[in-house]
């Protein structure tokens, strides 16, 4: 077996992982990760980023939701690396995939975007809909 993913949702899954670990060859890499962010969390993040992008500027410039995502991930302590583009005229960020965030990390990011937005006068449309209901 070269690769396997097991979601631990009961004792049978725990026993399967323990059995595999006890017979795995030395040098085998084992990684335990929290549950990844949910689709509703992802939808909410993109809705918030779209609102920020439509309403705010950064350093005098308008940016896409993707760039705002990078700025917020960096502000939340996610490691970023900026490399020159192929033509050498600008830089692009690497290491900013929100799909790798856990549910807890995604909640923290959404909270951070919400707090930043509140401090900077962003009107989030999903909150308007909640108030109108």
* Assigned CATH architecture of the largest domain: Orthogonal Bundle
CATH superfamily of the largest domain: NinB
The strand count comes to 2
The biggest sheet amounts to: 2 strands, antiparallel
The SSE order reads HHHEEHH
Report the top-level CATH class of the largest domain.
Answer: Mainly Alpha
Write the layout of secondary structure elements.
Elements: H1 11-23, H2 39-55, H3 65-75, E1 81-84, E2 91-94, H4 103-119, H5 125-132
Antiparallel strand pairs: 1-2
Characteristic terms for this protein:
mainly alpha, NinB fold, two-stranded antiparallel ribbon, 6% strand
Structure description:
This protein is mainly alpha-helical and 133 residues long. It folds into two domains: 1-32, no CATH class; 36-132, NinB (NinB fold), CATH 1.10.3790.10. It is 50% helix and 6% strand. It is built from five helices and two strands; from the N terminus they run αααββαα. The chain has helices at 11-23, 39-55, 65-75, 103-119, 125-132; strands spanning 81-84, 91-94. It has a two-stranded antiparallel ribbon with strand order 1-2. A hairpin with a 6-residue loop joins β1 (81-84) and β2. It is flat and about 60 Å long. The protein starts with 10 loop residues before the first helix and ends with a helix. The mean pLDDT is 86.
């Amino acid at each position: 077996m070269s690769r396997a993913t097991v979601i631990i949702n009961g004792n049978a899954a725990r026993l399967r992982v323990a059995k595999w670990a006890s017979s795995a060859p030395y040098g085998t890499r084992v990684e335990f990760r929290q549950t990844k962010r949910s689709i509703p969390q992802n939808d909410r993040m993109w809705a918030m980023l779209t609102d920020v992008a439509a309403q705010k500027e950064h350093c005098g410039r308008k940016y896409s939701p993707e760039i705002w995502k990078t700025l917020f991930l960096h502000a939340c302590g996610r490691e970023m690396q900026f490399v020159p583009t192929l033509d050498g005229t600008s830089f692009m960020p690497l290491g900013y995939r929100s799909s790798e965030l856990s549910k807890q990390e995604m909640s923290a990011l959404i909270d951070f975007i919400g707090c930043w937005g509140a401090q900077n006068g962003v009107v989030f449309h999903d909150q308007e809909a909640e108030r109108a209901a």
